[in-house]
Amino acid sequence: MADAAKKYQDLLDFFDNLLVLEGITSNEYVSLEGGELEPVLDKVSLTARRGEVWAVHSRSPFPVKLLLEIASNLSPPADGQRNWLQQDVPRKHRLPRSIYYIDKTGVLYPYMNSLEAIMFATRKRKEGVVVRQNQIFETLIGMGLGHLSLTPISKLSDQEEAFIQLLIASYSSKPLIIFNLPEYSFDEILLEAMTFLSNKLNKENRTLILGSTDPLLIEHAVSHAACLVDGSLAFEGRVEQLLEYDRTLLTIRDDDVDAIKDKMMALYPYLQYQVDGDHLSISEDAASSYDPYVIQETMIREGIQPRQVTVSQKTVQSALEAIGASHDLP
Question: Can you give the chain as a three-state secondary structure string?
Fold first, then answer.
């Protein structure tokens, strides 16, 4: 037993790739107009390395959930390869030993409060009970979640309970945590807490994969993103690279944005213009490289003075919309 544990630790120390998916195609299909069938997942490849925090994103939670179930050996693929950091292949529907998996399955006792649940789950750790309890309590307070400490699990929201499970996972020794709840969106306090945990895991050289349909979670809590569109991988890389898909330059607010749009189109006919109420968004295509501050100076020089002009800050939401538009999503 000791030899097996040492061999596993040697693998952890030597290899960076904790999860490798190659050409994953699902057994599950969706029906398109005209009765044509298309796999929910089609030739998806992904590599998660030590110290990375990933979000797997799709507009619909189903392909994300399915991909992470396949990645965790809980569902079989129709085609493709899965590799985990272990020498033996896990049995069917059994988690690989490197993975801590979180989904909607209730694993917390509802009559315990959050502090008791975390204490119970971490009971095998070496710290004394008092020291461990103080550490957990201080961690919750530091994340702005001290009020959850004495709240019964049965009284938590679904998102709060999911976060407590993620916090418990962070105290485990597993190098890879898969959080398969893409249907959840998190409020500002929980987003900050998720960011705290993702930073903690990164410093420990551990890996977290979050299933998500929420652009804000990607923007706040992860280092890498994989974006699924129609079952295929449309983007894979660092969040900074994802943000480059947001080509919005300026956002203008005015009571007569149509008139502003006409004037701007005369000056910059190759830019793209989108009106939404009293908002006008001006963006460029991927091949262009306009300076928004130069555009602002031109507006002033030409006497175009709307109520408000803002140089756009790149957002994950806009980047995902641009990726979707490039794949003809409405």
Answer: CHHHHHHHHHHHHHCCEEEEEEEEECCCEEECCCCCEEECCCCEEEEEECCCEEEEECCCHHHHHHHHHHHCCCCCCCEEEEEECCCCCCCCCCCCCCEEEECCCCCCCCCCEHHHHHHHHCCCCCCCHHHHHHHHHHHHHHCCCHHHCCCEHHHCCHHHHHHHHHHHHHCCCCCEEEECCCCCCCCHHHHHHHHHHHHHHHHCCCEEEEEECCHHHHHHHCCEEEEEECCEEEEEEEHHHHHCCCCEEEEEECCCHHHHHHHHHHHCCCCEEEEECCEEEEECCCCCCCCHHHHHHHHHHCCCCCCEEEECCCCHHHHHHHHHHHCCCC
